[in-house]
Please model this.
Amino acid sequence: MTASGDLVADLDGDGHADQVSDPSRTGARLTIAFGAVSGHRTQVGVRKLAGSPGDAQEDVLAAVADFNRDGWSDLFIVATGAWRGDDPINPSVSEMRLGPFSAAGRGQSVRHLDLGETRGIAVADYNHDHYPDLAAFVYAGDGVYETQARLGSKATRLASDSGKYTVEADRTDDDTPSNMPHSGLSSFHPQCAANGSVV
Ligand SMILES: [Ca+2]
Ligand SMILES: [Ca+2]
Model:
């Protein structure tokens, strides 16, 4: 973890540290620099990671964390078309891709996750167990937006929505809805120097 909040970890399993940054904090501007420290740098954004099913979608969002607690960071990708009115639409892609995963966004296995019409995602620790959970800002229909929690889990990878942490939100065009958690990855990773070493 760098001071600026970037995650530094080996994501693709090649033995070289990679670096994840998301200045948007909603997954929309997440970028990964593979080989960031070794010098063989390949930078990819969310649309490249999503692949062709994400083409032409309004919102393509990604989050990186070890959601199933096996030591490898996983890639969650969701791509959703334009808002179409009262009824929520289903994303064209909504997948947990288990790490290690490649610069093309291909993981060891893929698990579909039904979040609904998703307009923002973030990593957070809702239940304070020091393991990452996923926060999803979704359109629930009839003008209602809400932020839901999906808890990380070794058994199921991500639990279904229990509703326990759901917070209703006003419709917002803000890039970062005010009810999204901001803890990010700093809850789970020690801060490290820019070269990837832990300080
Ligand atoms: Ca790597
Ligand atoms: Ca994992």
